[in-house]
TrEMBL record:
The keyword Transmembrane helix applies. This is Diguanylate cyclase (GGDEF) domain protein. The chain crosses the membrane at residues 12-29, 294-316. It is a multi-pass membrane protein. It comes from Oxalobacter formigenes OXCC13.
Amino acid sequence: MRKHSLLKTNILVCTIILIGFFITAIVSYRSNIGVFEKDVEHVSTLATEGINSQIESIFSRPVSVSLTMANDHLLKSFLTEEIKHPGNRAYITKMQAYLDAYRKKYNYDSVFLVSTRTRHYYHFSGLNRTLYEGHPENVWYYNFLKNDEEYSLNIDNDEATDDSITVFVNCKIRDANGFILGVVGVGFKVDSLQKLLHNYDEQFNVEATLINEKGYIEVSSLKNGHEPVNFFAGDALAKFKERILETSEKPQTFWYSHDNRDGYVVTQYIPELKWHLVVENDVSAIRSKFREQIAWGFFIICGVIALVLFAITSLIKKYNAQIVKLTVSQETEYHRLLHNATEELYENIYEMDISRNRAGGETTRRYFESLGIGADGSYNQALEAFSRKIREEYVEGYLDTFHSTHVLDAFEKGIHNLSYDFLCTDDGSNYHWMRISAQIFFWHSDQSVRMITYRKNIDTEKRRELGLLEETLKDSMTGLYNKRATEQLIAEEIENGKGTDRKHAYLIIDIDRFKTINDQYGHAFGDEIISEFTAELKSQFRNDDIVGRIGGDEFAVLMKNVDQTDNIREKLDRICAKFARKEFGKNRKFHLTASIGTALFPEQGTSYRELYEKADQALYFSKTHGRGRFTIFGEEVSVSDTSRIDQRDMEALLHNATDGIAKLACIDNLSLLYFNDKFAELTGAPDKMLSSLHFSGWSLIHPDDKEKVQQAIVRAMPEKTPFTLFIRLRHYPDGHSIPVRISGWFADELYENRYPLFYTVVTDLSDVKS
């Protein structure tokens, strides 16, 4: 045991140190890398902005000078008159002087002119030649003439400056009619650009390159662009080619990692040059250095762990015996004090040796004898003996909680306290609430798992708690179960009845025209009626039935274990008759009726929601067929003829329906499912015709308005949104048109489980002046 403890301690210490090291290393690495990456991003962005700015400065003036020369009247005159002076030396010298003046004025390395008529190439130094098509040195010229650009850049060797690599800015010269007379341009040596890029490479530790739209290098600190070199050939940035060659005016930035190479790239498109500036910062070496530092740190921490383990092992071995002795002494004192402190609060305190399944002391052995199992009986036998005093529904929970195997399992999981409340008896008839609390601990002296149990009479406390719980389930006015409790209790009863031969009847009972009672006599009188109605309702059912109030004037009842429909009908008939005969109100004689909708379990539903919907539909049938009656779902009512909105919504519609209300189903003939007297009077159609199953709602709508109605229904149907239309109805039998406004509301139910249905409130506009 001691060796195991020492090993666990060493493993724990190693784990803590390693976790601490890795957390510190990771946090430090991420922090340093984060700062480093931000610095790299900042430096690369600054370098890009600096290079871009200086390039704009370098190229803006050559472009401007070339454009100025292209529009110089003297130059155009020279090219126009060139054909008149073939081989005239004075004429050529004059032109060369003109070009040389521009070169000296702006300090360029080269200034040239090409005539499109003669293809003569004039140079500031006096060199001239003819540019023949097909010669590789002249490709730039003929390509430039073919494109639509007014100016362009190319890098080539300059014969006038010892074939040095030069950046040329070329510009077309046009006459008044737009005809190209020639090409003029200036040039400066590419090494000035290379020097600029090299300076930034050295200063910011980056690699800057200018590439063209095809991805070939124009200028870099090492390449001059004279020989075509593909920037992406075999490079880590090849997969980012499309991103780099984007022509967005904003800089593009990204990190990359490829083939052990890490870096950060900033690209900037330079529209004036049609080149892309690529600034790359390779951080592979620095990141590798960071990783090396972490590896060295790991080796160092391993050495530290070895020294710590050696020190801990020596100390633990030296003081282990003293620590164990002190621990046992303190634990023994703790249990003694605990026993003394709790013996006045609890009826009985017993100690069990769970490891050996026996009593843990003399007091407990005497208690085993009192149970009739003998002083040497097992703990589990005592458990079984005491369970005979416990009420049946709590026995299984008691045995599961305190059985020795469960106690050992709880101790292994780190659970040291158990508790269980139950009803028990001392005389076999009177039950009271008791709580057994247990504390599990390890006894070092004999290496056993032990448990001390405490019994406490909690009858007063428990009954007060259950009373408060009961109050939360009751409706404050009527004393019946409230809506939430009613639904929960009925749902549990239905769930328990599945798979058995139990049959129940679910009732929804609604006081007829209760809103009128409140409106005419006030809410105080209405509350009085509710209270009297509740007392009468409760008296009609057995104590075992569930009776609750689920709305202001709506009640629900579950009649349990009723298997004869005829008996249910007789019961409901008596209830309706009793309500109709009874006088309500203390200070006035008031008669009322109640409508009932009923659904049977399990025939018409095996869930609370199913029974509620069926009973609610049956209630609606009772409401719309005379009130003061009951309806059992499936006899007079079915799903197909009860699709509707909530009764309270119906009352609101009726209240607003000054000229009529109708219910229609969205099928081909727009079936009319319900209408009131005002609607029949407005249309002039007889009730028999409107009630026919074959009657089409479309026949009431003017033919010219049918499409408008159809479109409105189609638009409103997906979200069930209310809609309003101004249309014309056809009056029966003379067929004259009646201008009306219809307001439609979709219901939640479906007609025949398939078709949406909606209610319309119809307002006659015949008397409204336009």
